[in-house]
Amino acid sequence: MSGLRAPDPLSPQARQLCDAMTAGFPGPGDIRALRAAAASGSGREGPAVASVSDAVADGVPVRVYDPAPGRPGRPLVVFLHGGGWVMCGLDSHDATCRSLAVAAGAVVVAADYRLAPEHPWPAAPDDALTVLLWARDRARALGCDPGRVVLAGDSSGGNLAAVTALRAPGLVAGQVLFYPPLDAWMDSASVETYAEGYFHTAAHMAWYWDQYGGDPEHPHVSPLRAPDLSGLPPALIVLADCDVLRDEGLAYARRLAAAGVDCTLQLHPGVFHGFLGLPLPAGAAALRAAAAWVAGAGAGAGAGAGRAGRPGSRA
Q1: Counting CB atoms within 10 angstroms of each CB, which of 98, 102, 195, 262 has the fewest?
Q2: Catalytic positions, please?
Q3: DSSP 8-class letter at 214
Q4: Which run of H or of E encompasses 151?
Q5: φ/ψ (deg, to 5) at 178
Q6: Distances (CA, A) of 256 to 18, 80, 237, 241
Q7: Of 314, 117, 88, nearest to 210 (Cα)?
Q8: pLDDT tens digit at each of 315 positions of the chain
Q9: In the chain, helix, strand, coil percent, each to 5?
């Protein structure tokens, strides 16, 4: 019937948060304003962690979260933060890393990779690979099993986790991708469906890609365009239903499964991009599920000593 509005696909609680966040978030183009907005929203506190320390991983600043120092054989998570490759850092994702470390019983190494546009592609993926190699080399000293190293990241950090898994599949026991951008061409139905009104807009995402740079066809920019995904480590892909990036994640999950990769997909209805770090039931559930997945990654089977593409590699 004409005149009837379609029901809002967001839950009432998610809609309230979405509208409040949208009202206080700048449009694309003003990088100083975007970074200031991201910094102002990083005050959420995570759980207490027994040991939190800052270090430098071969030139890349990192923060190491250890929930139980001295315990051997635990998983080791290399966490790559989101923020469109242009904003956020260790502080913005501190609560998420704390929560993941405690819930998974894992050591988490968060990477403060270089940001665009000052440092365009491939600076961020090179830093991500550098941190992976640094962390894996120190796994036993950190009380972790080098065969249980997991890459994890949200949004642009999910892209970096997927790219790093492509570059060093034999060094990784798993990859956890929270609503990652996987195709710089943004050619999917969800881009149009959720272009506006769901906090993370298509215009923002297109601008982030422009700042990031790189060839959109290159698999280390757009993992969805990699010609072969066979041999990659198991993946957990966590998506928001009301997100421009939803269909890219669904397509990547299908391709991984078709390539014989063990892939678990979790699609959360009624929420929008970024829900992992928000006070929503779906966010808490997604983090618990991810922690359980990490806790089981590589258990009983060490990762191989495969070759990694060294920083600077474009092939």
Answers
A1: 262
A2: 155, 243, 273
A3: S
A4: strand 144-154
A5: -95, 115
A6: 31, 21, 10, 20
A7: 117
A8: 456 678 999 999 999 999 999 999 999 999 999 999 999 876 678 999 999 999 999 999 999 999 999 889 999 999 999 999 999 999 999 999 999 999 999 999 999 999 999 999 999 999 999 999 999 999 999 999 999 999 999 999 999 999 999 999 999 999 999 999 999 999 999 999 999 999 999 999 999 999 999 999 999 999 999 999 999 999 999 999 999 999 999 999 999 999 999 999 999 999 999 999 899 999 999 999 999 999 999 886 544 333 344 443 322
A9: 35, 20, 45
Task: Give the pairing type, strands 60-66 and 51-57.
Answer: antiparallel
Print the SS3 string covering 81-111. Answer: CCCCCCCCCCCCCHHHHHHHHHHHCCEEEEE
